[in-house]
Amino acid sequence: MWKPPSYWSKVSPQQPASYIIYKDGLGYVYAKNGETGKIDFRDTDAATVIQSAIDALTSGRIIIREGSYIINSSITISSKSKISIIGIGRPTLKAAETSGLKLITIDGSEKIEIAGLVLTDHRAEGGTSAENAIRITNSSDIIIHHNEISGFWSWAVVIGTKSYDISDAPCYRVYFYDNYVHDCGKDGIHVVGSQDVYIIANIFDSTGDDSIALCSHSGGTQTKNVYVMFNIIKNVGYANGIKIHSGYQDKVEPSSENVIDVYIVNNIIEEPNKNGIIIIEEHSTISAPDFAKRVHIVGNKIIKSEKTEHGIYLSGGGQEVFIYGNEVSGFLTGVNVAGSPGVGNYSQIIKNHVYGTGSYSISIAPSDPGSEHINVLLNTVRNSDSRGINIVRVTSVIVKGNCVDNVYSHGIHLYGLTDVVVEGNIVRNFSTVSLSDLTKHNAGIHVGSCTRVTIVANAIYYGGGSGINTDGSNIVNVVGNVVYNIGYSGQETQTYRLSGIQVANGQYCLVENNITVDDRDTAVMARGITVYNITTGFHSSNMVYGAWEADIKIAGTVTLTKNSGKATITAGSTSVTVNHGLASKPSKVQVTPLSDPGAYWYVTNRTDTSFDIVLSTAPTSDVTFAWQAEV
C-alpha cells in the first residue's frame, strides 16, 4: 500500500519552525526567527519576506500563519535541501495581477515540502491571471500536500519542464497528494519527463483543460513509474480527465517508450467534456504508437451523462495497456482502441463494466492492419445504442467470457481479423433495432472476412437476428455453441430467414456439435443451420429443434466433405434415397435406426449425390434413421 515518504511533515503548529511568517494589521509582513525569537525580516511585500526567509536557510521549516498574502514576484526555492513551507490556519498566497507569474518555483532542489496553503490569483474575479501555482524542475523528493489551488491561466502545477516547448528538466520522486485543485485555466497538473511521481487522493474540479496530463518527448527523459490513484475528477471544462500524450502539439516529436509504467488506479472521473482517460499520439507527421507502454488502467469509475467522446481511449498510441475492472457509463464509446496500426498491441481488456453507450461499448479498430495480440475477456456490456463488442483489422485476438446484453446491433462484431478465438461468451437481447423494424437484423456473433476463426461454447439467446453468422471467412470452426429462441415475433414472416447458425461464402468450415432451439409456440427461427457457398467444408452432429422451415439448409455452391441428417422409410416401403450433399461419393456411411425397424438394414447405391437406406422387410409404421456420411 502506498504511503508518504518518511520525511513528510504533519501540518501542526506545535512543530518547531525556523521562521514564522505572519501579518499585522498595518500591512506589514514579518519573518520571526524560530530559534532567537527575533524579527529577521519585515516588509509590506509578502514575497520579499518569504523569499528572504528561504534564502537564509540551509535547511529548515517555514510556517506561514493564517491570513491573505499578496505575492508580487515568484517565490523561488533553488538549490536547496530539506526546506518545508507549511501553512497553519489555511493562509492564502494570492498572486498579483501579473500574467507570467509563477507563484512558487522549485528548481535544482531536494526534500522540499509545500503543505497547508491556499494558492490562488485574481482569475475568479476577472482580473489578470498568473501562470502557475507551483512549477518544479530538476528536483527530487518533493512533497506537495493538503493545499488548495485555484485560478492560474496555464497548468496549475507543472512537474519537469520550464516552458511550453517541453524542455527537459526531469524530476524524481514527487509526491502530490490530498490537494484540492479547481477552476484553473488549463491542466490541473502536468508531468513531463519525470519519474516516480505519485498523484494520490486529490480532488480536481472544473479544470480548463486536462485535469491530469503526462507526457515526454524524443530525446528527453522518460516519464516513468507514475501512480495516479484515488483521485476525484469532475466537471472538466474543455478536455479530458486524464491524458497521456506524446508531446505538446507539434513542438516535439514522439518516440518509442516516452511514457512507460503508468498506473491509473481507483479514480473517479465525472462529466469530462471530452474523454475520461486518453492515450493520444499528438503529432501530425510521425507515428509512434508505442510511445506509451505498460499503462495500467484499473478500477476507475468513469461517468458521463452525454453520449459523446470515449470513456477510455487509445487514440493512435499505447501498447501493453492493461484495462481491468473499470466502470464506464455514458460516452459514445466505452473503451475505444483506434488510430495508427500497432495501437493496442499486447493489451488486455478484462472485467470491465460498460453500459449506456451511444455507440460501441468496446471497440478495437485501428485505421489499418498492424495491431496484434489483444484480448477482450470477462467484460460485462449492456445497454449499447450500437454494437456490444466491435473488433476490426487485428491479428491474434481472444474474445472470451464476456456478457453482452441489450444492444441495438450485433452483440459481438468481428471483421478482417486473423487468428481469433471467440469462446464462452453470453450474448442476449441483441439487435434490439428489430423491435421497431422487423426488416432489420443483426447477429449475436457476426464474423466477416476473417481467417482462422474458432467460435466455441458460446450461448446466444433472444435477439433480432441469427445467433452466429460468418460471411466471407475461411478456416472457421463453429463448435459446441447454444442458440436459443432467436428472432422477435413477426420476423418469421419476413423475406429474410433467420438461422440459429449461418456460415456463408468461405472455405474450410466446420459446424459441429451445436444446439439450436426455438421452443416458442410460434417459432421464429426458420433454420437451425444454414450453409451457403462453402467450399471444402462440412457440418455434422448438430442438434436442431423447432426450426419452422428446415433443420439444416444447404444452398448455393457448397462443397462438403462430411454431412449428417435424418431420413425416414415410410410404412409399406423398403427404402429411402438420401441426398447427402457431399463433394463426391462418400467412402463412409453410417446409419442408425431411431426405433425398432423390425428387420435388418443396409446402405447401397452410393453415388456422388446420394445413397439408399434399405430394409429387408417393409415396416408397418415409419422408421427414421440418423445418418452420417463422409468423403
The number of distinct β-strands equals 63
* Strand-residue proportion: over 45%
The Rg value, from CA coordinates, equals: 34 Å
Oligomer: single chain
Overall geometry: elongated
Helix content: under 10%
Architecture overview:
- By secondary structure, the protein is mainly β.
- A hairpin with a 5-residue loop joins β1 (19-23) and β2 (29-33).
- The longest helix is centred in the N-terminal third of the chain and has 11 residues, at 46-56.
Explain the layout of strands and helices.
Blueprint: E1 19-23, E2 29-33, E3 39-43, H1 46-56, E4 60-65, E5 68-71, E6 75-78, E7 81-88, E8 92-95, E9 102-107, E10 110-115, E11 118-120, E12 132-137, E13 140-145, E14 148-150, E15 157-159, E16 172-177, E17 180-182, E18 189-192, E19 195-200, E20 203-205, E21 212-215, E22 223-229, E23 232-234, E24 242-245, E25 259-265, E26 268-270, E27 277-280, E28 292-298, E29 301-303, E30 310-315, E31 319-324, E32 327-329, E33 333-339, E34 347-350, E35 353-355, E36 362-366, E37 371-377, E38 380-384, E39 389-392, E40 394-400, E41 403-407, E42 412-415, E43 418-423, E44 426-430, E45 445-448, E46 451-456, E47 459-463, E48 468-471, E49 474-479, E50 482-484, E51 499-507, E52 509-512, E53 515-517, E54 527-535, E55 538-540, E56 543-545, E57 550-555, E58 562-569, E59 575-579, E60 588-593, E61 601-604, E62 610-615, E63 623-630
Parallel strand pairs: 1-4, 4-7, 5-8, 6-9, 7-10, 8-11, 9-12, 10-13, 11-14, 12-15, 13-16, 14-17, 15-18, 16-19, 17-20, 18-21, 19-22, 20-23, 21-24, 22-25, 23-26, 24-27, 25-28, 26-29, 27-30, 28-31, 29-32, 30-33, 31-34, 32-35, 33-36, 34-37, 35-38, 36-39, 37-40, 38-41, 39-42, 40-43, 41-44, 42-45, ...
Antiparallel strand pairs: 1-2, 2-3, 58-63, 59-62, 60-63, 61-62
